[in-house]
Amino acid sequence: MNGLMMNQPLLISSLIRHADTCHHDTEIVSRLTEGGLHRCTYGDAHRRSRQLVRALLRLGVAAGDRVGTLAWNNYRHFEIYYAVSGMGAICHTVNPRLFAEQIAYIVNHAGDRVVFFDLTFVKLVETVRPLCPAVEHWVVLTDRAHLPAGAAPLLCYEDLVTAESDDYEWPEFSEETAAALCYTSGTTGNPKGVLYSHRSTVLHAYAINLPDSMGLSARDTALPVVPMFHVNAWGLPYAAPMVGAKMVLPGPGLDGASLCELYAAERVTISAGVPTIWLNTLAHLREKNIRLPSPHRTIIGGAAASAALIHALEHEQGIEVRHSWGMTETSPAATINTFKGQHAALSAEARDQVHGKQGRIVPGVELRIVDDAGRELPRDGAAFGDLEVRGHWICREYFKEEGAGVLRPGGWFPTGDVATLDADGYMRIVDRTKDIIKSGGEWISSIELENQALGHPAVAGAAVIGLPHERWSERPLLIVVKRAGHEVTGAELIEFLRSRVAKWWLPDAVEFTDAIPLTATGKISKRTLRATYAGYYTKQPGAT
Ligand code: AMP
Known about the structure:
Elements: H1 13-22, E1 27-31, E2 37-41, H2 42-58, E3 66-70, H3 75-86, E4 90-93, H4 100-110, E5 112-117, H5 122-128, E6 137-140, E7 155-156, H6 157-162, E8 178-183, E9 193-197, H7 198-208, E10 221-224, H8 236-243, E11 246-249, H9 256-265, E12 270-273, H10 275-288, E13 297-300, H11 307-317, E14 320-326, E15 333-336, H12 348-355, E16 359-361, E17 365-370, E18 385-391, E19 413-421, E20 426-432, E21 437-439, E22 442-444, H13 446-453, E23 459-469, E24 473-482, H14 490-498, E25 509-512, H15 526-532
Parallel strand pairs: 1-11, 3-4, 3-5, 4-8, 5-6, 6-7, 10-11, 10-12, 12-13, 13-14, 24-25
Antiparallel strand pairs: 1-2, 8-9, 14-15, 15-16, 16-20, 17-18, 18-19, 19-20, 21-22, 23-24
Helix pairs in contact: 1-2, 1-8, 2-3, 4-5, 7-8, 9-10
The protein binds adenosine monophosphate.
Adenosine monophosphate binds near residues 324, 326 and 521.
């Protein structure tokens, strides 16, 4: 027997409609690419996104079409999110930090018909455009006064939007309709398209608004540092209007000074971003001796947040850190770290142990770890194995690769991460499968070594890679960026690590560098480092 409740499809348009009804005057503040701050409200965004739908229809965009963006976090990008998905088309956010050839591959693979782009990317578009002949319209996200004089015809966003009326009713369709498309970073092989549905996006927004997740409310001001081109800014552009949180969109200003200015001036209570952003911001706060307004909680994910970073943010700045893990394929929130009541009684050290993990499983997601034969391993916090995931907002197939058989038996998605799970639902990432160091038949966690090295006061950045070694098959190399004004030697760092990790984990050598190479999504580019230091242990004189 079925229940007798209404069955309304979970549609993204319902979020902005609700925000307009209940949070009409709540602000969206944007740092503009043109310079200066812009203020509008959820009421404005709802009106303008409906005007934008009419403009898209006039350009010939229909349901199911892909519409690309190369844009920062700002109110125009927000309007595109809602207009494109709301009309039944697919909002395809492209990462502008990729190489032009990769961008062209992604735009062509997606079959984008229109691409919206910020002024920052005018030159990039000049390079990419000839490689993407199927794109019919390139629209600059600006007004007529700032329109660049270019050879190729460009459309002006403000002209398109303001020419239309907002007389448009959001259509109703199946909640399984595709809403947004985001490509994985493709460190191995070509990038793959993850195609989110309305249902997965709305359920994910509900889940991240839970108190033990990101926990947004109508009293919060949320600043997603994580770009709207990186897994939909972790769902915040959907979660914030759902509860009526004020949004602050930092545009291209992702440096410490620009972010701190917004944190203070707009009294931001929730932020979200990758660890490297916080490392830069923390350096700025220390240098200028600034303390950010409280309360502030921050969601850190995308790469491991070190214990040293978490500790510094909490103790120097009074910021509550919620460490989180996810992937493009998981929308991304799958685990977020908050304490349980029972942890209050623990010692500070034991609490730090819990706090350093990647977090507790978000309801709506299941995780398990398995061995090489696919057998499930115990949830005892010690056993580690391949991490698998399934749930309402987890990818089951990649776009245009349907039928390739991505999932493992039981419908589990293989994450490519190695992890532990415990009986309280907490997960700890040990490493990426391809980054874990296999030495003398044992495994060494590069993430744990980095985490420990970052605890040294003279270390600003640390990366560990495994390099081929004749005797041990692989040995770790520690690569360090020194903190400004601090000195330390390789031998001192190894000595520092000696009491913190097993003896056979100790790196055989330490190299110093000015900057650690990052991927387009802000993670340490271990592929680049492995290429830079190739043959380090095998070609050196006296190497064993
Ligand atoms: P992406 O799809 O580009 O967001 O990358 C997802 C990958 O980033 C995951 O499979 C992990 O390897 C890594 N990752 C994300 N969050 C964390 C975290 N909190 N700690 C360690 N690794 C993480």
